[in-house]
From TrEMBL:
Keywords in alphabetical order: Sigma factor, Transcription, Transcription regulation
Similarity comment: family membership: Belongs to the sigma-70 factor family. ECF subfamily.
The keyword Coiled coil appears for this protein: no
Residue span(s) of domain DUF6596: 175-274
Domain RNA polymerase sigma factor 70 region 4 type residues, every copy: 109-157
A Pfam family the protein falls into: Sigma70_r4_2
Domain RNA polymerase sigma-70 region: 6-66
UniProt key word Transcription: yes
Name of the protein: Sigma-70 family RNA polymerase sigma factor
InterPro entries documented for this protein: DUF6596, RNA_pol_sigma-70_dom, RNA_pol_sigma70_r2, RNA_pol_sigma70_r4_t2, RNA_pol_sigma_r2, RNA_pol_sigma_r3/r4-like, WH-like_DNA-bd_sf
Length: 425
């Protein structure tokens, strides 16, 4: 419950007290109160409202101890009376105002006074509820680096007295790229959890998708806003088919009858809006629109065997040109391996690992995982087993580790069953 409610709690408190650090402390005070009271009294009917009300009371107590905050005390006391036992907030009449505290917090966390890395890390920490370790794995950087970024970001926001508001005009456009990246990474952490026992965290996916839809409604002329929304809609459509019990199910093994066709249709519509907005501006598709087009190619294939891998490989090539990164190249190798054969995919993958991007991927579990899959398709079972075993050692997600070890065991069995000349060749 805390994982779900804490981002909303921190965002709502930040709007009221205008201090991110204080808001976090008040939210954690409410958590402590819940840990003390809920085991004895039971979980309240509306846990989020209980946490918010408790945090507001702590805010009132804290402000009473500081006479310089008398004005805020009157404001909070009045709001507490209005919102007693309710999680709702006032809705501004101005349609240009974003009535979403979470979205306000995203824009504040992406303020230009912060570095790009700090913006993303701070927002993931506050809105996604991710630990510093999980963020570090998402960025392929040391955990200590992420921890320093978050601490410095909070200090900078407090020192610069950044207001809790949504920017307008050019300032909003400048911060949009960071905001979209944050929403994208929050969704990814929910879609394939970095660590823990759960393969997915649906609450994070829902939060990210909701924020993307709000942005789409607000910024109708922005192609990449619609591109991101399209991508998340289509990716979310696979959720019900991505697990069997607690076991992850790979894309090509999923029962596509369980894909949510409503979300797919919404994704196709958002992709059409992205393409239309790009044409209106005379610009090529952006990175999110290209990823959405890749997801749409999978969604159109009712049978995995009918997937247009050549088109997907071409889209990844465009994506690599627009937004080059080791992870994009890794995915391109997968697509090439499916379109042209595993030998071609393996050649691309080995070149990637041996090139400048190699160090960044050294501890990234998907590199040996993909390599193991390509080697398996080439019949090199002993090598594939070693790669799956290495990938299992690198991942922090227990469900994914179990799947990788299962694949390693299958490759070991295949290697043992192979004729002697095949094993020595």
């Amino acid at each position: 419950m805390w994982r779900i409610e804490s981002p909303r709690l921190i965002a709502g408190l930040t709007r009221m007290v205008h201090d991110l650090g204080v808001a976090e402390e008040l939210a954690q005070d409410a958590l402590v109160a819940a840990l003390e009271q809920w085991p004895a009294e039971g979980v309240p009917r509306n846990p989020g409202a209980w946490l918010m009300t408790t945090a507001k009371r702590r805010a009132v107590d804290q402000i009473r101890r500081n006479e310089t905050y008398a004005r805020k005390l009157r404001m909070l006391g009045h709001e507490l009376e209005l919102d007693q036992g309710s999680a709702s907030f006032e809705v501004p009449d101005d349609p240009e105002v974003i009535e979403d505290d979470l979205l306000r917090l995203v824009f504040v966390s992406c303020h230009p006074v912060l570095s790009r890395e700090a913006r993303v890390a701070l927002t993931l920490r506050l809105l996604g509820g991710l630990t510093t370790d999980e963020i570090a794995r998402a960025f392929l950087v040391p955990e200590a680096t992420v921890a320093q970024r978050i601490v410095r970001a909070k200090r900078t926001l407090a020192r610069e007295k950044v207001p809790f508001e949504v920017p307008y005009g050019p300032d909003r456009a400048d911060r949009l790229a960071s905001v979209l990246e944050v929403v994208y990474l929050i969704f990814n952490e929910g879609y394939a959890a970095t660590a823990g026992d759960d393969w997915m965290r649906p609450g994070l996916c829902e939060d990210a998708l909701r924020l993307a839809r709000v942005l789409s409604g607000l910024m109708r002329a922005e192609p990449e806003v619609h591109g991101l929304t399209a991508l998340l809609e289509i990716q979310a459509s696979r959720s019900a088919a991505r697990t069997s019990g607690s076991v992850p199910v790979l894309l090509l093994d999923q029962d596509r009858r369980h894909w949510d066709q409503l979300l797919i249709r919404r994704g196709f519509a958002a992709l059409a809006r992205a393409e239309a907005a790009a044409r209106a501006r005379g610009v090529p598709p952006g990175p999110y629109a290209l990823q959405a087009a890749i997801a749409a190619s999978h969604a159109r294939a009712l049978d995995p065997a009918r997937t247009d891998w050549a088109a997907i490989a071409a889209l990844y090539e465009q994506l690599a040109a627009r937004a080059p990164s080791p992870v994009v190249e890794l995915n391109r190798a997968v697509a090439v391996g499916m379109a042209r054969g595993p030998a071609d995919g393996l050649a691309l993958l080995d070149a990637l690992a041996a090139g400048p991007a190699g160090p960044a991927l050294e501890d990234y579990h998907l590199l040996p995982s993909v390599r193991g899959d390509l080697l398996s398709r080439l019949g090199r079972s002993a090598e594939a087993r070693a790669e799956f075993t290495r990938a299992a050692a690198l991942t922090r997600n227990n469900a994914e580790r179990a799947l990788l070890l299962e694949r390693a065991a299958a490759e070991a069995a295949a290697a043992d069953a192979a004729p002697e000349d095949d094993r020595t060749s």
